[in-house]
Amino acid sequence: MVASPATDRPKRPASATAWQILLAMATGLVALAAGGPWLWLAALSFVALALLAITLIVDGRKAGAAVRQNPEDRHSAGLLELIGSSTHSIIWAKDRDGRMLYMNSALERLAGVSLADVLGKTDAEWNTNRAEAKAFEAADRRVLETGLPEDIEEVFTGREGTPRTYRSLKSPLRDRSGRVIGVMGVATDTTDQREAEQRERLLTRELDHRAKNLLAVVQAVVTLTRATNLAEFKQAVEGRIQALGRAHSMLAASRWEGADIARIIAEELAPYDNGRPGRLSLEGPPLLLRPSVAQSVALVMHELATNAVKYGCLSAEQGRLEVCWEVGELVVGGAGVRLHWNESGGPLVKERSGTSRSGFGTRLIHSSIERQLGGSLSLDWSPGGLKASLDIPLERPPALPVTMRNEAA
């Protein structure tokens, strides 16, 4: 801003200047803390602070020694310097030729760029990223030509080489007659906020997709479940939906990154543990299953457990169930997990008069492993107990290749 000589310009009470500064600072900090839709208010408040700062700086240069000796100006300039060094937003001002007139210390803190390398220079002279410099200059020219403020997003790459996104509010810089003599602005780093919003959008789409799939599975379960009476039908449907619900809860807790296979199996078997040592045994490496695999495995484990409780080892006091898994190359090709379900100590096959090897539960197991997951399944109804082997393809290798052993709780 162009200022009249110190003797000609009207005196501004020190208290008024201080209250203006404190009000703008307080408003900006409160709005910045609130975040979200209030960021624009923070930006406007810091613009007001910057305008006060530029006014004092330019006034000080024009007024010369008389202003430098003025206690009011020294106090206000010191306060504005403190504010400029305290905010995380970058505050700057340029003349009509694009030379930097003012820059607070946020640029140095956030981007590792020294103020000495910026002041008095154009964007093209100090910014080594030519594309970014041209974009800055183009936006500045629009503000200079139209005389209107702009609220835009800009990308700036600091010395560490990582591009960051900034919300930049640019306004024309005017002298006391209203003539545009430059451009000033406030830039706030919104990279983390944008990334969080992007993750939220992706998660929302994923949840929508998973919810539709889950509803389709539930519909199939209800439609295809067969029973001799309503109570039996209700019990079968509830059990299967609860198995899906438990898997869904685990996935939701991990923000749909996946669910651990050991926990899925333990959750399904926990109600059938009579406390006898060795009744239930789980062994295998920690393995995070992607959502679609986790839901199918939960349903399969529920069907196998239900069969074991009705006709197999879990129907006998001395029955024993061992579930183990390993990761490796599958017969169907690609990396996957091979899971073994071994029952012992239960009724002999000839005593299982109620067993239906072609019932809905068996068909559901085959469908889940072979159709939905593209794996393979074998069921051996040996006299000593059911032996099942499941090959489940994985899209990616496990993150934790450590072997563990635990008893299902």
For this structure, the quaternary state is single chain
The assigned structural class equals alpha+beta
CATH architecture of the largest domain: 2-Layer Sandwich
Distance between the termini: 74 Å
Shape: elongated
CATH class of the largest domain: Alpha Beta
Proportion of residues in β-strands = 15-25%
Mind telling me the C-alpha Rg?
35 Å
Walk me through the structure:
- The protein has 409 residues and is of the alpha+beta class.
- It has two domains: 14-189, 2-Layer Sandwich (Beta-Lactamase), CATH 3.30.450.20; 194-406, Histidine kinase-like ATPase, C-terminal domain (Heat Shock Protein 90), CATH 3.30.565.
- Helices cover 47% and strands 22% of the residues.
- The chain has twelve helices and 13 strands.
- It has a six-stranded mixed beta sheet, covered by helices on one side. Strands 2-1-5-4-3 form a five-stranded antiparallel beta sheet, with helices on both faces. Strands 6-8 form a two-stranded antiparallel sheet.
- Helix 1 packs parallel to helix 4 (71-86), helix 2 (39-63) runs antiparallel to helix 4 (71-86) and helix 11 (291-310) runs antiparallel to helix 12 (360-372).
Write a brief structural summary.
The protein is an alpha+beta fold and 409 residues long. The chain is built from twelve helices and 13 strands.
